[in-house]
Amino acid sequence: MNVRVLLFAGAREAAGADAVQVDVPADADYARLAEAMAAQQPALSELIGRSRFAEGTRYVAPGDTIDPSTEIALIPPVSGG
Amino acid sequence: MNVRVLLFAGAREAAGADAVQVDVPADADYARLAEAMAAQQPALSELIGRSRFAEGTRYVAPGDTIDPSTEIALIPPVSGG
Amino acid sequence: MIALTHQPIDTTKLVADASQPAAGAVVLFLGITREFTAGRQTRELAYEAHAAMAEAELARLEAAARDRWPLVACSIVHRLGEVPLAEASVAVVASSPHRADAFEAARWLIDELKQTVPIWKQEHYADGETEWVHNQPT
Amino acid sequence: MIALTHQPIDTTKLVADASQPAAGAVVLFLGITREFTAGRQTRELAYEAHAAMAEAELARLEAAARDRWPLVACSIVHRLGEVPLAEASVAVVASSPHRADAFEAARWLIDELKQTVPIWKQEHYADGETEWVHNQPT
User: Which helix (H) or strand (E) holds A53?
Assistant: First the structure.
């Protein structure tokens, strides 16, 4: 399946885009998505290794199955405050 | 010697005065002053037992000798803030 | 109350709203743009958010703080976009009947915000360089 | 900066003065007049000080806090006279490069102030009674 992932901050800057489309097997988990994104976007790979994913407005765990009906985002280490 | 002691808050209210004059022996300490004040002002005696004294802008200890050249104050338990 | 804003944060209003007769203590924390970090000069900071998720995370933090402490008021406001030197990027206000709770809640809220809320800071250095900050939060 | 005042405390100015480019964190504490204490209704509070000594004690607290924490700004203002419900009787502001110091200094200053500074509170209860508060400080 094809998954759209929103990018923010340094990830957006490194990819030169607000979002990327990534192909992953059906029923893949977020760990698999991270691998596929890193392979497709080498400039992002270091930051992906330190990032989490979110579905909608909640963090997900690496072992969670991707729900492609939700808005998926890559959340690099945060620095608000 | 005769010592003038400034009164504040509940002590001022109980004595009905901003200050009292107290007779104490020359070279008396503040513990002796507390005793003399309590004897002279029975309405103040309970509060004196829970109070400290100050000379000028500093607290003194009960065993400190009274310096009658300074401004002496009775400092009941404070409640600022 | 939680909010993201592109305008300067109105801290006077936040403090006034938190100063209610049921409270005895109000604590305000402001994170402001500091000029020097590790010897390097900052001209200003810029903040970006995953806005929908950041608002949801902030609302969860407010709810968690209200569960944990007896708060009269609890507000978290984060500014987005450029924040000049000495201006506030974030304001946290907590009020409570007694001061220990307001202090603890305000400290906990800013510590948690820095760990979990999807907002990012970009350094705009005085020498013209820019840099997104993605250190592990401390 | 320390001050005693019979006017409402200008907390907006205190926060603005503490928000300097050398700081990254500002903490404001306000003690405000709470309506209910142990179930009894307060109409307002009135404060009295041994003014010269209170100013000296506040100045010693500011100096001690500046010795102990790397503070950019440190202000303590106490209001005297009548303080209506929800208005501030005391304001403490500390700013520092990093937030832990500003939080710790503000908390320490208000805790010490309540132990040592010769200022007294008189309850003006809603039922018309008045009472000077001389409990052992907590």
Answer: strand A52-55
Q: How far apart are CA D73 and CA C79, in angstroms?
A: 23
Q: Contacts of residue A77 in chain C, CB cutoff 8 Å?
A: 134-137
For tokens 């009269």, what's the residue?
Answer: C72
D neighbours by CB contacts (3+ pairs under 8 Å): B, C
- Closest Cα in chain A to C31: A81
**Chain B residues with CB inside 8 Å of D56's CB?**
57-58
pLDDT for the residue numbered C129: 97
The alpha carbon of residue C83 is apart from the nearest alpha carbon of chain D, in Å, by: 12
Q: Report the candidate in D9, D20, D23 with the shortest Cα–Cα distance to residue D80.
A: D9
Condensed to tens digits (0 to 9), the pLDDT of residues C35-80 reads 999 999 999 999 999 999 999 999 999 999 999 999 999 999 999 9
Extended strands (E) in D2-118: 2-5, 25-32, 36-37, 40-49, 73-79, 81-84, 88-96
ipTM for the complex shown: 0.96
Q: How far is D112 from chain B (nearest CA, A)?
A: 10
- Please state, rounded to an integer, the average pLDDT across all residues of chain A: 97
- Rounded CA separation D57/D111 (Å): 13
Q: What is the DSSP letter of B71?
A: P
